[in-house]
Amino acid sequence: MKRSSSWRIFFRRPLGVLGAAMLLFIVLLALLAPTIAPYDPYAHVTVQPEDVMAPPSPEYLLGQDDAGRDVLSLLLYGARVSLTVGFAGYGNVSQGAQGFQLGFLHLYPSEAMLAASLGP
Predict the structure, then answer these.
(1) What is the maximum alpha-carbon separation in the chain?
(2) Strand partners, 70
(3) Structural domain that includes position 95
(4) Which of 15, 23, 56, 77 is the most exposed place for a label (fewest CB within 10 A)?
């Protein structure tokens, strides 16, 4: 299959394109979090009673949490952590699968060659 036909098939599926666009948007938000976050989520906040669980306002677009911190900033910085853990986990799983295959090939070379030659 040619590379151009693979892209053509991908772009014919609107849900796949929508999912890829959403993932790209989240990755961009996470990468740009220090630039676009209105407040530092790690900064010490002096809390007033009216700041606890405050609803959205022009100053705090998604409101405040139980510690008086901006929820939008927490969400943007939390996306960075989630994507890091997700991509690291994916790398560990794929490396584990490769290690299993190489270990199987090393321990049982004749069976592995037979399975490879017969196919699925």
Answers:
(1) 72
(2) 64
(3) 32-118
(4) 15
What secondary structure letter does DSSP report for 49?
G
Asked whether the beta carbons of 10 and 16 are under 8 A apart, the reply is: yes
**pLDDT per residue over 39-91, tens digit each?**
998 888 888 888 889 999 999 999 999 888 999 999 999 999 998 888 877 77
**Within a domain: residue 6?**
no
Give the span between the Cα atoms of 46 and 62, in whole angstroms: 19
pTM value > 0.85: no
Phi, psi of 115 (to 5 degrees): -65, -40
Q: Which two tokens stand for residue 81?
A: 């952590």
Contact present, 104 and 115 (Cβ < 8 Å) = no
Contact 46, 53 (CB under 8 A): no
Q: Check if the beta carbon of residue 55 is closer than 8 Å to that of residue 44.
A: no
